Amino acid sequence: FRELFNNAGDSIYIHDMAGNFLEVNQVACEKMGYSREELLGMNLEDIVSPCHYNLVPQRVRHIKEYGYGIFETAHLEKGGREIPMEVNTRLIHYDGEEAVIGIVRDITERKLYEEQLKYLSLHDQLTGLYNRFFFEEEVQRLNNSRGHPITIISADLDGLKLINDTVGHEKGDEMLKVCAGFLKKVVRGSDILARVGGDEFAIILPQTDRRTAKEIIERINSQVEKYNREHPNQLHLSISLGMATAPDSREPLEKTFKKADDMMYRDKLHRGSGAKSQIIKSLMIALEERDYITEGHVRRLGKMCLQVGEKLSLSQKQLSDLVLLSHMHDLGKVGIPDSILFKEAPLTEEEWTTMRQHSEKGYRIALSSPDLVDIADLILKHHEW
Question: How distant, in Å, are the alpha carbons of 159, 166, 171, 306, 383 from that of 359?
Answer without folding.
Answer: 20, 11, 20, 22, 8
